[in-house]
Amino acid sequence: MGDLEIRPALADDIPAIVAMLADDPLGAQRESPDDLTPYLAALERLSGDPNQHVVVAVRAGRVVGTLQLTIVPGLARMGATRSIIEAVRVHADERGSGLGTHFIEWAVDRSRSEGCQLVQLTSDASRTDAHRFYERLGFTPSHVGFKLQL
Fold this sequence. Notes:
This protein has six helices and five strands, in the order E-H-H-H-E-E-H-E-H-E-H. By secondary structure, the protein is an alpha+beta fold.
């Protein structure tokens, strides 16, 4: 993956990021590529927080992946710091290329360098292919997650 760069997301990357977020049945229901204003505001807010890492994978000048890594200091587990991986997307043209594995490995390595003792993520119950992918990388389906829409 020597031709791949992982770097912080920039405002110019938002159209490509939102396109990837919307490029599946779930994302198509909850994302709006027609209005990038809320995404730009969110990126600005996230970029100012040292515990938030919104990154993109770039190959040959093209954004081909994105994820958000959040560092969460805590009291539980003897004051452990954990990280949360969210919004992982790989461009359809890149799926099966090893990019997803490389991207998650980057997030785990970054979590270690930030002093995290645990990396966690959630995946929609309908994403069975993603579940197999995460399990292959060593993640275990150890908890049941709940959400409350506000």
